Structures are given as C-alpha cells and as structure tokens.
Fold:
Amino acid sequence: MANYVIGDVQGCLDSLLKLLEKVQFNPQADTLWFAGDLVNRGPRSLDTLRFVKNLGPRAHTVLGNHDLHLLALWCNSGRSHESDTIAEVVQAPDGEALVDWLRGQPLALPLPGPQNALLTHAGLLPEWSFQQAQGLSAEVQHVLSGPNWQAFMAELYGNKPNRWEATLEGFDRLRFVVNVFTRMRMVRDDGKIDFKYKLEPADAPPDLKPWFEMPREYPGEGPIIFGHWSTLGQIKNKAGYCLDTGCVWGGQLSALRLEDEAIIQVESVEPPLSTIP
Structure:
C-alpha cells in the first residue's frame, strides 16, 4: 500500500498513465493525491477529470487555479484564453456532474504518513498554521459546494486584498484565501503577495521572496507539498516539495511517494506548449 502525491497534470492524461504504470499503481491498495490543476492546456482535460473522479476514494485532489478557471467558465464568470483546452468539459454530457464533483474539492488537505504534511496547490501563507489553513479551506469549500457558488465565482478574480487580516470578511476574505492557495508565488517583506512574478526566484526583484523563503510562524509543522510553479527549477525547498515540473511544457510529471519520500518522474509524452505559463 502506497500514497503518491502527483504534480500538475493539466490534462496530460497520457503522461499520468505512464507515471502510474512506472510506479505500478494498484487501485485496490494505493492512493493518489493530486496537487491541483488537473485540467487545462494539455490535450485531455475531460478524460483526466473522468479518470480521477472514477477512482473514487483512491484519489484526492486540491483545487488549482486552472480548476477554478474551469468552474468560472462553466458559470460564465471567466474569460476564455487561447491556450484553454477545457471547452470539451463544458460541452460534455457529463460536464455538470464533473463540475459538481470538482467544486466539492478542498484547497488544502492533510496527507497521511509520519511527515504530517499538508497539500495545497500554490503553497501556504507563512503566518498560517496547518490547522488554520484547513479551516480556511473549509470556508471556501462550503461556499463552492453550496447552492450559491456561482455568486462567489462572479467575485473571485482580483488581486485585492493582497495581505492577510484576520478581520477580512465576505468575498474579500474568500478571494484572498483562494489566491493564497492557488496563485501565490512571491511575497514582499511587508507581507503583501505579488501576483505578477512567475519566473525563477533568482531573477526576481530584490524586494520579492518566494513564500517558502519567508519565516514560518509554525516551524515545527511538517512539510508543505505543492505544485503551480513550473519555472521554480527545484523540487525540494525549505518548506517541502514543489511537484510541478512542467509536464504540459514538455518537462516531467512528478510524484512523491509519502512512505519513503522518493521522487518518481516520467518525461511528458504530450506535445509541449511553447510559452511561459
């Protein structure tokens, strides 16, 4: 029995199947944990959603920014992009069932095993504890899985507020939580999140630092496992592991086996995209 955490698939189902073959995935005994962005930009978003959903309790996922983009397009709250490959989901006969399943997923998940790790798509704000992160994830999950979720999607996009205050309320609070868990990369010394910089930290302006380089207020907690940052150029970091190794860009699809922290990778088999994410 093994638990595998898998980086951003983004519709690259063939690469995912290749990775599962390499680790000899046993759906009767093993469990998969996905770091978000199951869909978009790769060629098989619809098939990927169906595959993961049909694994039932043998697969868990957190939401990524591309998953939320799909939800926004479903309810006409988002703008489509030339690189999108999710129209097939919206048009599918089981599209509504897939969207309902997706919007029921959390933003943060505790992982099994002795490491006491936390899984999110983009990372964790340095001042949040794991317990607080799971509570904030539950707040968003409650809204997204509820009957009025489309009202929230209409208010989802925006970069403000960009600094955490415990007194935040309503859509401002929910938007900030979503942005941390699905979009965050760089943080300023004053605690404000920068949502523009997406490249390697070494090339960043001096006033920006990767969120995982900032001092954690709860340093005794376990590793944070995340994806989202394909240009980061490293898997192991001060906070834990980044498993987005650019599969959709012609890189690798990566998995972390929780039992021994082994990294397993396969080369992407999909035609690579040619621009920076």
Notes: The first strand starts at residue 3 and ends at 6. Residues 130-144 form the longest helix (15 residues).
